[in-house]
Give the backbone structure.
Amino acid sequence: MIPDAEVLAVIIDILKSLEIGKFVIKLNNRKLLDAMVDLAGCERRKFKAICSAIDKLDKEPWSKVREELTLQKGVTEEQADKLAVFVQY
């Protein structure tokens, strides 16, 4: 993953040098998603359901996604709060 991080660093340097203003770079990687779910203490069998909810963050606020996770996907409030650390910016 080191080469990937180096490429991102170069991209960030280029975007900063263009002075285009604030920008956000979003990463999506299965290993990152696996680690987030594990660190939040979620069951592995809920991985796909959790990811499908998190994917909605481009269209819905975290409060709606959190509600879906806790009320429909079987994620505890504590686990949702741990996931929030990774997915909110």
Summary: The chain has a mean pLDDT of 92.
